[in-house]
Amino acid sequence: MKLIEGLETRTSIRGFKPTPVSKETIKKILHAASRSPSYTNSQPWEVAVVTGAKRDELSKILYDLAASGAKSNADVPAPKSWPEAIDSRTKVHGAKRFEALGVGRDDTARRNELRLQNFKFFDAPCAMFIFMDKSLGPWSTMDMGIFIHGLTLAAHGLGLGTCLQASLANYPDAVRSALNIPDNLQLVVGMSLGYPDHDADLNKYKSTRVDVDSFTRWY
Ligand SMILES: Cc1cc2nc3c(=O)[nH]c(=O)nc-3n(C[C@H](O)[C@H](O)[C@H](O)COP(=O)(O)O)c2cc1C
User: Fold this and answer.
1) pTM of the model
2) Angle 52-67/172-179 helices, nearest 10 degrees?
3) Considering the domain boundaries, does residue 212 fall inside one?
4) Which residues line ligand 1 at a C-beta cut-off of 6 Å?
């Protein structure tokens, strides 16, 4: 796949086949993403790859917390407010996604069911949890974003699908405890990884983008 095609065709995948992903393939993805640029080549990322029994155990822990209504205690707090233009994009995203799935505005039960799918990793056989040292600042957060996009693109290039999930970072203490991760590492984001099930309902929705000219000033 050409690089430009990969960038243009990657989408979040929220329905996976049960087919396991080999360690060799996961290593290939990690290796390709590790070629990402970073501030003074600092490479701040640390990754936990979770499959098999550990995947099931962690999924249950996170699912139970989310289903019980436990409040998020994310290391990277969610924004409290957005500038107006951005706020409207997030609302359009939510509304269009539920519309594509035929879920009504007031159908809170179904909306909650869909939210909880996050914690089942959308049935993906592999989950990744991505950390960086708590003492690092915004430049490293930028490096993390570049690395994480690299993971999604490398996976896509190998015929796999990914969904980045802030929701998987809602309960970082539970993740650290289950995976024996030291306290100095903050959980930045989680990601489901597997072979896409293109027939899955949750993969019906395709996100849109604002036009290039709406975010670019030309001189
Ligand atoms: C940092 C980050 C956190 C995200 N968290 C979630 C999440 O918790 N659950 C989910 O289903 N999608 C999540 N997404 C996926 C976005 O909704 C998705 O990238 C966006 O709507 C654009 O769609 P696309 O990835 O299909 O192009 C997240 C994406 C990013 C980059």
Assistant:
1) 0.97
2) 160
3) no
4) 11-12, 14, 93, 118, 163-167, 189, 207
Angstrom distance (rounded) from CA 21 to CA 87: 36
Over the Cα atoms of the chain, what is R_g? 18
Compute, in angstroms, the gap from residue 92 CA to the centroid of ligand 1: 14
Quick check: is 102 in a domain? no
- Measured CA to CA, the distance from residue 28 to residue 179 in angstroms comes to 22
147 sits in which H/E element: helix 138-157
Instruction: Tell me the best of 121, 128, 132, 164 to mutate to test the pocket of ligand 1, counting ligand atoms within 8 Å of each CB and taking the most.
Output: 164
User: pLDDT truncated to tens, each residue of the chain (219 aa)?
Assistant: 899 999 999 999 999 999 999 999 999 999 999 999 999 999 999 999 999 999 999 999 999 999 999 999 999 999 999 999 999 999 999 899 999 899 998 999 999 999 999 999 999 999 999 999 999 999 999 999 999 999 999 999 999 999 999 999 999 999 999 999 999 999 999 999 999 999 999 998 999 999 999 999 999
User: How far apart, in whole angstroms, are the C-alpha atoms of residue 75 and residue 82?
Assistant: 19
The whole domain housing 26 covers 3-76+119-205
Amino acid sitting at position 72: S
Q: Look at residue 211 and tell me if it is in a domain.
A: no
